[in-house]
Write a sequence for this structure.
């Protein structure tokens, strides 16, 4: 959870520094003037406690002001959204025992301030004209738009390939579910593809944050390609997972963090869902509860779906239930019972047709 919060904060930091923003314009002015700067975005008590000297100015932020104030040697401190410049020409004194990989005084100070406070610290190199962001224990070097666009487009191409494969896998899994032939290994395989798509999407979202207004087309393509993927993955977990203590969304988030670098190990995924412990379990059959298929039927409220699963437990039993048996479930009348029965039959024909191809 803490990692998710940090990712959100860091993405906001990138958005704050995206091309076209006042902050980015100010930084570009500083780079062009070849003066360098150290900017702390956040005036928390911890930051202000380590800042000595300088001038308290409490003025509105503007690119021109940042450019002029950066001519002084000390650090510039702004509020948390960089809308106000709080203090300038300040001397920062972070804990010298904190580790740092940086060699220059400005960048070493920036890294230690970020480590100690968790705030965003921007270091602009006077000699190399490079902008480095430090936040918590992470650092990131700002890149030019052309470089980001190339990498974003490459990531989109990779995402498209994974998304196409995932679409086929989801259709195949649907056919297996209606035929009652699903194995744990196949569930893990589809979940692996889903997590891979979500992780690539998260990487592209960082590019979009960096690009700012230049990332509109990339954002449109991403929204189209990642549509419903998280919902499908969450429903797969809800259909098969044997963990009751966490919600499906929490489990998905946990699995994504645990297997961020490599989710291809089916055994790890299987254990994360409490579906088994050894490779032999991957070949065992698994029965879906029916959440994913029932959510595809129009105008069926979540409460009704929960009542259906609570009554019949598995998709196969819901499929075999008569209209009268469906009608007995709380909240389902005869009209809705027929709608559910007919909807599942149509889906069965569609998925089996795709499954047989």
């Amino acid at each position: 959870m803490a990692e998710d919060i940090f990712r959100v904060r860091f993405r906001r930091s990138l958005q704050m520094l995206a091309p076209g923003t006042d902050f980015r314009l100010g930084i570009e002015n500083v780079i062009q003037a070849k003066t360098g700067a150290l900017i702390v975005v956040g005036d928390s008590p911890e930051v202000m406690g380590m800042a000595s000297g300088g001038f308290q100015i409490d003025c509105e932020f503007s690119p021109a002001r940042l450019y002029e104030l950066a001519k002084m040697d000390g650090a510039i401190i702004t509020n948390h959204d960089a809308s106000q410049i709080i203090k300038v020409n300040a001397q920062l004194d972070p804990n010298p025992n904190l580790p740092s990989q940086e060699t220059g005084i400005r960048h070493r100070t920036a890294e230690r301030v970020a480590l100690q406070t968790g705030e965003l610290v921007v270091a602009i190199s006077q000699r190399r004209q490079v902008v480095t962001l430090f936040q918590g224990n992470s650092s990131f070097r700002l890149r030019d738009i052309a470089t980001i666009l190339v990498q974003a487009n490459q990531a989109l191409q990779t995402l498209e390939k994974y998304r196409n494969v995932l679409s086929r896998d989801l259709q195949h899994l649907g056919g297996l579910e209606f035929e009652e032939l699903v194995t744990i290994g196949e569930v893990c395989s589809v979940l692996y593809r889903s997590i891979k798509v979500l992780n690539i999407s998260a990487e592209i979202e960082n590019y979009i944050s960096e690009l700012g207004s230049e990332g509109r087309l990339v954002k449109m393509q991403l929204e189209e390609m990642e549509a419903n993927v998280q919902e499908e993955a969450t429903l797969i977990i809800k259909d098969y997972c044997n963990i009751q203590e966490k919600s499906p969304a929490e489990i998905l988030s946990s699995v994504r963090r645990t297997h961020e670098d490599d989710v291809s190990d089916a055994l790890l995924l299987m254990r994360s869902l409490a579906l088994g412990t050894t490779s032999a379990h991957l070949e065992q059959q698994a029965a879906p509860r029916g959440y994913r298929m029932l959510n595809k039927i129009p105008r069926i409220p979540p409460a009704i779906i929960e009542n259906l699963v609570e009554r019949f437990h598995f998709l196969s039993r819901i499929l075999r239930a008569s209209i009268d048996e469906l009608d007995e479930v709380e909240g389902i009348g005869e009209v809705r019972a027929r709608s559910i029965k007919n909807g599942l039959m149509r889906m069965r024909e569609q998925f089996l047709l795709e499954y047989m191809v």
